[in-house]
Amino acid sequence: MIITIDGPASAGKGTLAKEISSTYGFAYFDTGMVYRAVGLEMFLSGKDISSEQEAEKVAQNLSFQKMMSLSKHPEFRGPLGGKNASIVSAYPKVRAALLKMQQDFALSPVLADGSKASGVVYDGRDTGTIVCPNADIKLFITASPEVRAERRYKEFQSRGINQSYEEVLKEIKARDERDMTRSSAPLKPAPDAIIIDTSNLSIEEVQKKVNKIIAEH
Ligand code: C5P
User: Which phi and psi angles does 3 have, rounded to 5°?
Assistant: First the structure.
């Protein structure tokens, strides 16, 4: 079984995907990692983030192992990592170079300990529309920019990252704008996606809704 979870930054996709992965024993692919890895590698190697050509080269040379190793860098999940990921993810050539790696993951999905998984859960922006258009269940998780900024602000605080709520909200809105207006794979629900607005729902309420959808499927 393949489940895709798309939606804007900090809507709760990752939390939900991890929960599905542990409840059902499914492998998990956080697809934002491929763009974070390319964006961070551009920064670390001193390349110009505004060059699509340079970013394409970095994307073509990205392996799963390299992505995992870059993910240990403190900036990978920090403000710079998010911003650079959002910039390189708007380049069509970068998206094309990273598509196969994401699709191949579903061919022989494995859990973190290397054992075979009976399904896969993807989270991202285009996993139900482009990466896995034939997924069994497609979810689109969203929430208001203010609620998402509050969640990200608290997450940054707990990790000792110093950014004000206003700065986080500004960055979330800028990212939404880039993600929704880019010509290549703009953020939008697949026509057959189930849309869940989590603004007024607890994590448990969202999980309950989704468990019901999976059970009915
Ligand atoms: O989900 P995360 O915040 O890690 O994603 C980082 C950035 O990568 C997003 O802002 C978005 O621009 C991009 N992204 C994307 N397509 C995906 C996943 C992430 O364009 N499937």
Answer: -120, 130
pTM above 0.90, yes or no: yes
User: Which residue's CA is the nearest one to ligand 1's atom 15?
Assistant: 125
- Residues 133-144 have pLDDT tens digits of 999 999 999 999
188 CA → ligand 1 middle, Å: 13
Closest-CA residue, ligand 1 atom 5, reads 32
Q: Which CATH superfamily is domain 2-211 in?
A: P-loop containing nucleotide triphosphate hydrolases (3.40.50.300)
The CA 146 to ligand 1 mean position distance, Å, reads 19
Q: Which atom of ligand 1 is nearest to the CA of 82?
A: 6
Angstrom distance (rounded) from CA 178 to CA 8: 11
